[in-house]
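Researcher: Hi, I'm a grad student and pretty new to this. My advisor asked me to get structures for two proteins we've been looking at. I'm not sure of the right format, so I'll just paste the first sequence and hope you can take it from there.
Model: That works fine. Here's the first sequence with its structure tokens right after it:
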Amino acid sequence: MTPQPIPFIKMHGAGNDYVYIDCFQVPSPADPAVLACRISDRHRGVGGDGLILVQPSTRAQARMRMFNADGSESEMCGNGVRCVAHLAVSRGHAPEGEVTIETGRGVLTLRVKRLDRRHSQVRVDMGEPLLASASIPVDLPAAVAGPEDRVIDCPCPALATPEPWWQAAGLDPRMTCVSMGNPHVVFFCRDTASIPLEAVGPSIERHPLFPRRVNVHFVEVRAPDRVKMRTWERGSGITQACGTGASAVCVAGALTGRTARRIVAEVPGGELELEWTEAGPVLLTGPAEEVFEGIWQEG
């Protein structure tokens, strides 16, 4: 039986790009993990940081399922969910304004402002950060973790031995760990450009310290309300932006006293606005942009 062609939409949020399938219009793929690997390939596929399915939901106006470029399924993507909300509005599945999206983190509320046919500015209520080591999770002895079993400026076994690049980067090898529904580890440094991310990222991502692997971020504080960050995403590698990661960085900066609770995060793909509200949730605001539409033919 010849596989049916699959219509898709290529979109990005601050350069964090995914291939989207509108499953309101077409059936969900039988094996999205395999499809994610093929369609995300930047040389033999469409190219992207992964695959996102936009599906009907019984709990919200749409459901997001996201698969990294290596086929692994992830709970949440802050840039991806903004694009899902844009797609839901632009394709008539939800009205402009407040939109609810079901994710692996639960149901999130977003506010979509259409700029034109292909662009929206979207604010996401990312929910409250999870800080207990077991919730992230981080397999760290309780004696090492700080008060309330939080991992804030703690020694990192994955960076236990100094290397030559530490000095060039002005690295503080202590880690702060946050979950935004998916796990993040944050390190602060003087110069993010000096971090050999392609080598350091995968070794930290897969370190036994992190049972479900981890997203890795290196952060340069430019002012109390502005940071520059680089990211190694779990399952996708170096990416242009990470929305949940920027949210985690906002929380980590505030927890360690390095930044205010409201910041702008400079990422390779643009800028994201973050606020860790006094009420608890983190608010993330940034762009959602369609790039092109196409048809994927398996086989």
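Researcher: Oh nice, that was easy. Here's the second one.
Model: And its structure:
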Amino acid sequence: MADDFFWYELMTPDQAASQAFYTKVVGWTAAAQNMDGHGNAYVVVSAGSRGVGGLLKLTDQMIAGGARPGWVGYIHVADVDAKVKSILDAGGTAPMPPMEIPGVGRMAMVADPGGAAFYVMTPKPPEGADPGPMPPAGTPGTCGWRELFSALGDKVAFDFYSAQFGWETVGEFDMGDEMGVYRLWGHDGEQLGGMMKKPDNIPVSMWNFYFTVEGIDAAVARINEAGGQVRMGPHEVPGGQWVVQGIDPQGASFALLSATK
């Protein structure tokens, strides 16, 4: 798990609406935790009995600071402060400096040199707390693919992440002069995602996460029934899997992945 994505968080202006949407579309269960004293809670979403992500309410202050609805991934690191320094030295930024959250861990929000945001975190759960192993790849509700759209292009972006986290190129697809190379990346021999040049219709560099479901057509029907929008797909990708990209009712981009149509 070290130096890989392990948690996925949705920043949303309406936790209740987002919870209703994603529990219907992805099939997660959800439970509110850690009340903050202002009537807000952090909602943990689970695949089976294992937490895989959370729903964080966007406050007025966060929105005033430029935050918008969207998914952000957490990368597990051994030393948050050292990693933030390394990212800054490599041309990245740290919109949120390292901070300690008792019973949760030490974390910081950073962005790569192209502007794509993510968190680095060293989890420190309470003594005796054991979330258990992550469900195996392909389990409904888990993240099955992690995709970077970068203003830097696939090669420069990959060089940054490879230097910071030891990720490896495991394949390349030439998508033509306009779209460039789709770079497959992984870690410790496992293929985990892709990187490509940011398309013109995506305003900023960003990570996009694909959550696993059973049957892409049924999932598309649930997206439409729950008030979301299909932005692209569904279509089959190399390897025989099916994907769809969408926008939830609060305006956050998301994607789904299935082994079957």
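Researcher: Is there anything I should tell my advisor about the second?
Model: You could mention this: The radius of gyration is 18 Å.
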